[in-house]
Design brief:
single chain, mainly beta
Length: 171
């Protein structure tokens, strides 16, 4: 792994996984992979950094999350699209279902494809596991996942969001 690392993110806990982006915009992942969070197409742990690609996309940011052994990875691309992989028991990958993904899968709901829905930031809080938040270029905050304690900001706690929703029109 002799590249110029631009950024690195590491999940916490005892089942750590890592994602790094190099100065030439290449993504590398390694570590714990029980649910496919490395984006390798399998669930075999990665013992050394391996390059991951998303066809036709330039990766500009990575975010990882882990609670127990339930890991996820999210990447934002220069196109404004976001891709995710890993544990998806609460729909927190934002891919429209609750199936674990071992390949990077595009987040649905028009994020990155519709006008004013280009993703510029992503946050997957470990303390509120099962939730992810996206910020789009128009300044809106989006949520996907568990919403157990009203984290989505939609006024309820009973609806799990497998597809990203706007948190609140006032934000």
């Amino acid at each position: 792994f002799n590249k110029n690392v631009k950024s690195i993110v590491v999940s916490g806990g005892s089942h750590t996984h890592c994602a790094a982006i190099t100065t030439d915009q290449k993504l590398y992942t390694w570590g714990h992979n029980a649910h496919g969070a490395l984006g390798s197409g399998n669930t075999t742990n990665g013992l050394s950094p391996q390059e991951r690609t998303i066809s036709g996309q330039v990766i500009v940011k990575a975010e990882v999350c882990q609670k127990g052994s339930y890991n996820q990875t999210y990447v934002i691309c220069a196109s404004g699209r976001v891709y995710s992989c890993g544990y998806n028991g609460y729909g927190q990958l934002g891919v429209g279902n609750t199936t674990n993904q071992s390949n990077f899968t595009q987040v649905v709901g028009g994020l990155g494809t519709d006008t004013n829905k280009f993703v510029i930031d992503v946050f997957a809080p470990q303390s509120h596991f099962g939730n992810v938040f996206f910020v789009t270029n128009d300044g809106r905050l989006w949520h996907a996942g568990r919403n157990y304690r009203g984290e989505a900001g939609t006024g309820d706690t009973s609806v799990q969001h497998n597809t990203p929703v706007i948190c609140n029109a006032q934000l």
